[in-house]
Amino acid sequence: xASNSCDFTNSEIFVSEWVDPVLTASGFDxxxxxxETYWLGxxxxxxxxxxxxxxxxxxxxxxxxxxDLADTASALGLAFRHxxxxxxxxxxxxxxxxxxxxxxxxxxxxKKVPTITKRQLLRLPTALQHSHSQLFAAS
Length: 139
Fold this sequence. Notes:
This protein is of the alpha+beta class. The protein is built from seven helices and six strands.
């Protein structure tokens, strides 16, 4: 999926699901404990909340929905500044890590996310590295 920057000059943007057959079968739900435990340390708290919020809304509106950026920022305790706010930075962070794809008029969001990479894992605390290894040793 191509990733371009969103046009944050508008106050609304369309959100749809990024369907990936591989992750649909083997990924982790964006609202799962896995995301909270392992992805949180990689993408940070604001990006984690944004990912979860957008994913939850896709459960309610599976064909996509129009997102009011100012209302969403306010609901998440973030700022929307038409390109320079903390909401926009959180969306960009999700896009950097391949959890959201951007087009000028749309956000395409993964409801199922991949496991973190080995490089990302090595940046987490030792206790999380160990628990991650145990999680996959048991499967």
